[in-house]
Fold:
Amino acid sequence: MMITMPARVAAAAAAVSQKPDAGGASVPRRIAFTTPLTYAARIARTIELRGWEPYHCPTISVGPTPRTHSALEPYLLPPDPILRLFSAVAFTSRNGIAAFADSLRPGFPPLPPSSGEVFTVSALGNDAELLDDAFLFGLCPDPSRLEVLVPPVATPAGLVQYLGPGSGRKILCPVPLVVALEEPPVVPDFLDGLMRNGWDPVRVPAYETSWAGPESAEALLEVAEILDAVVFTSSAEVEGLLKGLKELGFCEWEKLRQRWPELVVAAHGPVTAAGAARLGVVVDVVSRRFGSFEGVMEVLERTWGKSE
Structure:
């Protein structure tokens, strides 16, 4: 019987979303991911939409603390918010935007209306969804003073390029304070890029990134069945997992991979892939479309589609 094109496409999709178990029955592919809770619902949804089974093993904890609140508030709160001396703010993560918004005081926008130059607010990819009207109004009641920039290439380097020459202007950078982990080079490289482009970047710790503890590695090791893929979205997640595995006696990453010989290690973008390699974790596939998590799921689909 000749298979029509729609049926062939449907059969290919089923092959990618499911695989036979030891008894020959079709079971959904299981995808582990190590993101903090901030991104968990979004990435789980992209996995479920493909008929796969998400398995969340957060290896880092991310969020504001009293220490970071104290660091950020002088830039935003009365009587004289320091932000008024700046020309721009650059967010490199969703967590930075959320922490910044949480520190704004209702009824007291730190930027006065119709005073001085246009103020630039910049963010990466889908993180810019948080730069909604409520956020912008809380920053300045005059929308004509604000310019929102979202670079077409959703990387810190792409943001530096899209911002253009700084001409000595100040730019606030709400970034993480990394605790009990090695700071990845992403933020230092971003700040260095801004300086080389003529900006005067000021780093402020807006939230903390810390190790989630050995529980995340324990959760991964509890997967008795086949694990088809693990997705990393930052090098801090990789380090957090390795740190947990080491405490549990898995001193080498390859020792873990032996549990699941067909495991596909996926990285959300080249920055994450480079960080993983620096930590000794070989990445099999890298998303080149990293404005959203769809890109890394698409590369997994292509990988399994070729192998079927």
